[in-house]
TrEMBL record:
Pfam families: HSP20. Belongs to the small heat shock protein (HSP20) family. InterPro entries: A-crystallin/Hsp20_dom, ACD_IbpA/B, HSP20-like_chaperone. It comes from the Bacteria. The keyword Transferase does not apply. This is Hsp20 family protein. It comes from Ruegeria haliotis. Keywords: Stress response. CDD domains: ACD_IbpA-B_like. The keyword GTP-binding does not apply. Coiled coil: none annotated.
Length: 155
């Protein structure tokens, strides 16, 4: 029994809702995660990533990649096959699938390609200028004193 109450976290923090929701989703997910199709996630540079999904037997027309809010949805649905075919062994799975990836803020899809049975999705994190760290110039106390206007006592 793994049941955690995140109510105190919601009461004590502001702006961390996504982290608490993600932890809640991960810890309360009792259903086994699907392992089809297999995939890799690699970090190709400081702010770029690539998701590679093994989609043997699927063409570009059978696959779809959608980004909605902070979620990436990769789905595949094979067109109807000939009923005339008779398989002695069928080891290549071409069943429909849907795989979701949670994306961090400011991560966007830059492209997708399909080659040699692999679907490659390229991602890039683009932090806006307003959120990047900036250097604040520190002035000396002499410069501040020059700007002060001398005031005379009225009384």
């Amino acid at each position: 029994m793994r049941s955690f109450d995140f109510a105190p976290l919601h009461r004590a923090t502001i702006g961390f809702d996504q982290i608490a929701d993600m932890m809640d989703r991960v810890l309360t997910n009792d259903v086994a995660q699907p392992s089809y199709p297999p995939y890799n996630i690699e970090k190709t540079d400081a702010d770029t990533y690539r998701i590679s999904v093994a989609v043997a037997g699927f063409s570009e027309n059978d696959l779809s990649v959608e980004m909605k809010e902070n979620s990436l949805l990769v789905a595949g649905k094979k067109a109807a096959e000939d009923k005339d075919r008779s398989y002695l062994h069928r080891g290549i799975a071409t069943r429909a699938f849907e795989r979701r990836f949670a994306l961090a803020d400011h991560v966007r899809v830059t492209g997708a390609s399909h080659e040699n049975g692999m679907l490659h999705i390229d991602l890039k994190r683009e932090v806006p200028e307003a959120l990047k760290p900036r250097r604040i110039e520190i002035s000396s106390s002499k410069a501040i004193e020059k700007d002060v206007v001398d005031a005379k006592a009225v009384n």
